[in-house]
Write a structure and sequence with these properties.
Blueprint: H1 3-27, E1 32-34, E2 69-78, E3 83-85, E4 92-95, E5 100-104, E6 109-117, E7 120-123, E8 127-128, H2 139-147, E9 149-155, E10 158-163, E11 168-177
Antiparallel strand pairs: 1-11, 2-3, 2-4, 2-11, 4-5, 5-6, 6-7, 6-8, 9-10, 10-11
């Protein structure tokens, strides 16, 4: 197969896979909210992880594992003291129980496999849909940082992904399902 046919086949595969993923995601649409402990007001009731009902979370595995969890990117903290703040709700990453990763960005969707061995985390190669994006986007930076993951730490509702050569840390917050108290008829 020549180079052009290979790239055309790859693009078709990515578009088809992205369409299937979008269809599945839309058919399973659930209201989700990112919990950032820094923004919880004093009148909000906070339930500790020990007290939280299992059915109320989006995870299906133990709280200290990535498998079957969903996270919202909050920021990246660099070793030189600078930060990149993520736009709220735009960058959501899901670590599947089958060790596949999917993520939305401020423009496209990403898909990859990941390797997990205790705290060690390796992500890649990362495939992306290629929609035309208007305005500034953090997608390229976010994708590059994910591909530079070396390890991770989960503490409560916070996930920290450490980057190659200790250049920085990506900070994520666990996403949980918001249960609608209105009964459906």
């Amino acid at each position: 197969m020549d180079k052009n046919k290979f790239f055309i086949a790859l693009i078709v595969f990515i578009v088809v896979f992205g369409s299937i993923y979008a269809a599945i995601t839309l058919s399973n649409k659930t209201s989700l909210e990112v919990i950032d402990p820094q923004t919880i007001s004093t009148d909000t009731q906070v339930v500790s992880q020990e007290e939280a009902p299992v059915a109320a979370t989006s995870q299906t595995s133990a709280p200290d594992t990535l498998l079957g969890t969903e996270w919202g990117w909050s920021r990246t903290e660099y070793m030189n003291g600078s930060k990149t703040e993520a736009p709220a709700g735009k960058f959501v990453i899901t670590f599947g129980a089958d060790k596949t990763l999917s993520s939305t960005t401020d423009c496209n969707s990403l898909h990859s496999k990941f390797i997990l061995d205790d705290e060690i985390l390796s992500i890649g190669p990362i495939a992306s849909t290629k929609m035309a994006c208007s305005g500034e986007t953090l997608e390229a930076q976010y994708t590059q940082e994910l591909s530079r993951a070396t390890s991770h730490v989960i503490k409560g509702n916070e996930l920290r992904i450490n980057l190659y050569k200790d250049t920085g840390t990506m900070v994520f917050f666990r996403r949980v399902k918001v249960i609608d108290p209105t009964p459906t008829q």
